[in-house]
Every structure is written in C-alpha cells, then in structure tokens.
C-alpha cells in the first residue's frame, strides 16, 4: 500500500500468482488498507462499470460528511484512473494524480472521502469494480468537468473523450468552488479523525 502525493489516496499493488491455469491475486486486504488509511473501509455498496475505449467518467465526489470513500480496480482491459483533490483548503487542492489500472498488474486505488474520482477507458470492455463506503445518494453527489482546462488532467491524446451529458455539463473546479459545492479540507480531516476513533 503506497501513499500517493495527495493525502488520503493510496495505491495497492498485489502479488499476482500465475501458472498454467491462470492467475490469482488478493486485490483487497482490509488490514493493509486500515493500516494505511487509519481506519477500516466501511462497505456499503459495490459497483461494476463496463466502458468502451475513450469513455471518460467523472470527476465525481460526494458531500462530506459522510462523503464516499472508494476502492477501485480494473478486472478487464485497462483504464487511466485519476484522483483529484477537490477539498477546499487542502495543501494539494486542485492537484491530480493518475494511475493505470489493468487486468495484468491488478493494482487498486483507494480514495478517501472528499476526493474526486474519474477514469478513462483505454480499451473496449474496460471493466472497473469499486467498493464504496456509502451508498449512492443523488442529493449529495457532485461532479467537476474532467476536461476543465485549469485542472489540465493529462488524458491520453490518442482517444477521443466520450462523456455523459451530465459529466459534460459539470462545472469547472473554480465554478464549483464559487457555487459552494466542494468539500472543505477541515470538514474532511475532522471526519477522518472521527472514523479513526470508531
């Protein structure tokens, strides 16, 4: 479990055991994630998304509290998975970091509550599975346009981005901040402390 440059984001690289039958990997270990995050991941929902090459989903985040932590992996094909710090007042506010998730390395990405999440499918049939700490609740779910030029996320240039109408109409990071849609860093760190206490 490796801490990324954005607080609350970790990448897990499992040991993949391969032989003539295929491959096996432990893609989620609660003990290792709890040690890295400081608390266990409450499992409230599991999602599976299948996308064509070029499909771009996100940047999505939920209001804190309670937010929605995510533990994400790719079980078929490949995606470029991106975490964005949308927490107003964070030392890394507006920063993003990208990790390639694929069916070979079996890496997983953990994003704490309050962080933004997006991914682009690099292959047809890219299948992403993710565990969520809270169920989907439309009234507290928000988005930022993943093509916001001020964010300047380094999406692959060889693919034409294909967004849902909702994601395409999402505001820029600056506009979301002006509208009061973004979580605050203080609220998030307070919530993380509460989770650590149990």
Automatic annotation (TrEMBL):
Reactions catalysed according to its record: dTDP-4-dehydro-6-deoxy-alpha-D-glucose = dTDP-4-dehydro-beta-L-rhamnose
The domain of life is Bacteria
What Gene Ontology molecular function terms does this protein carry? dTDP-4-dehydrorhamnose 3,5-epimerase activity
The record's section on Gene3D superfamilies has:
Jelly Rolls (2.60.120.10)
EC no.? 5.1.3.13
- Known Pfam families for this protein? dTDP_sugar_isom (PF00908)
Q: Does the keyword RNA-binding apply?
A: no
Q: What is the stated purpose of this protein?
A: Catalyzes the epimerization of the C3' and C5'positions of dTDP-6-deoxy-D-xylo-4-hexulose, forming dTDP-6-deoxy-L-lyxo-4-hexulose.
- What's the family? Belongs to the dTDP-4-dehydrorhamnose 3,5-epimerase family.
Binding partners and assembly: Homodimer.
| Listed name of the protein | dTDP-4-dehydrorhamnose 3,5-epimerase
Species per Swiss-Prot/TrEMBL record: Nonomuraea mangrovi
Its gene is rfbC
